[in-house]
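Practice problem: predict the structure.
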Amino acid sequence: MGISPIDLQTLFTQVDKVGRAQVSQKEGQLVQQAIHGVQIQNKTEAQLQQVNEAQNTGEGADKINDQKQRHNNSRNKNGNKKEKDQDEQQQLSYLRDPSLGSRIDIST
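Answer:
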C-alpha cells in the first residue's frame, strides 16, 4: 500500500510536533535523573550529619558486658586496697625523711 500525496502533506505538518515531543521526552528523562541524583546526595548528607540510634544487640551482649563489669569491679576493689597501701607507704616515707624541709637554698 503506497502513500498518497495527501497523506504526505498531513505527515509533514505533524513532523515538527513529533520532534518537539521526542526532545521533551529526552529532556524530561535527563531532568528526572538529575533530580533523583540531587535527592540521593541530600539523603546521604543528612545521614552523615545525624546521629544514629544504637541497634538492639540482644541479651547476649548485655550479659557479656555485665560479666566484664563485675570482673572489673572485683579487680578495682582489690586494686584500691593495694593503691591505698602504696599511698600510705609513700606518705610514711615522706614523714620519716629527716632532711625534708630543714634546708632552704637562698642563693641566686
